[in-house]
Structure prediction request, 274 residues.
Amino acid sequence: MNSPDTDKVFTGSIPKCYEEYLVPLIFEQYAADLAHRLAARPQPVTRILEIAAGTGVATRKMASTLPENVSIIATDLNQPMLDLASAIGTIRPVEWRQADAMQLPFQDARFDAVVCQFGVMFFPDKSKAFSEVRRVLRPGGVFIFSVWDRIEENDFVHTASTALESLFPEDPPRFMARTPHGYHDLAVIARDLQAGGFSAPPQISTVAMRSQARSARIPAIAYCQGSPLRNEIEARGKSRLGEATDAVAAAIAQRFGHGPVDGKIQAHIVTVEC
Prediction:
């Protein structure tokens, strides 16, 4: 049942739950960090490509932070995610476009910067995707992306995964550890970048932040219903989604309290020059 084929599927009600629950829980903080890093570049960027943009949290932050002369093209493999991102909109126009990171539909040396917030982990061939990024970057351009650190460094999702192991002892859903938190080895990242054509060594910062919610049920809904973890849970029985969400909420409440909850999140921010 643990099929990576479903790891990239953000369809049905997942995009809405992702935007409503998961974005404010773990993504907004890092989107602000990404926009700040771009704004602080010594050589200003004017053409940005975002890959795996999801519902547009980083896109919105870049559009509101960077000068209006900076053009942004935001892409994602999943059209339902882009449809929601476009419907939410941005403070100024950006271009939304469906695209596969394995084969970017852009000419060589077109962009000053390529960014990807928590999407690299989903690429089936990291080196191939990195070679595509390298191809569309102009000389002197920059690639900035973020990946989650190991699951044990991220409180709510680790608690959720442990709870699901107890609920499904014979075949626990392992999407979170396998994919979102499965690409944290810095040596592997550096090797894959080199294989993709980046000769400069990457600069990697490990950044810890806090994840907060009004109750334990919010992160439970976020992870169980707002990510492809839902696909794995429902593969074990459509009726078990509510049961799984309840089990995760109870585990988070037991560890972090029955009122507002606060947990650590941690990610690696990778910057590599072209």
Summary: The chain has one domain: 4-273. The radius of gyration is 18 Å. The mean pLDDT is 95. The CA atoms of residues 167 and 244 lie 7 Å apart.
